[in-house]
């Protein structure tokens, strides 16, 4: 019990002697997002579970959301593939 009282007494003395340390706030500039944003529409499709798992794994590796990954894949496909018709 005496040890506890000594510790408390030492703590009070320390608090009286040492000035309070206030934390310093760091200010970081805010990254500006591009002001031009494309209008969005919803896309809902059913895909095989194995493909979804592959997409999720790839997204985690490359730090991409499923939305971003879908947009990249569709743009890549449409930009690189020649147009096809249903009768092809």
Give structural attributes.
88 residues, mainly alpha, 3 helices
Overview of the structural elements:
The structure is a single chain. The chain is mainly alpha-helical and 88 residues long. The model has no long low-confidence stretch (mean pLDDT 83). The chain is built from 3 helices and no strands. It has helices at 2-17, 49-62, 66-80. The termini are far apart. The chain is elongated.
Short structural summary:
InterPro entries: Arc_rbn_hlx_hlx. This protein has 88 residues and is mostly helical. 51% of the residues lie in helices and 0% in strands.
* Rg, Å, rounded: 30 Å
Secondary-structure element string:
HHH
Uncertain ranges: none
Can you summarize the main beta sheet? none
The helix/strand class is mainly alpha
Task: Give the SSE map.
Elements: H1 2-17, H2 49-62, H3 66-80
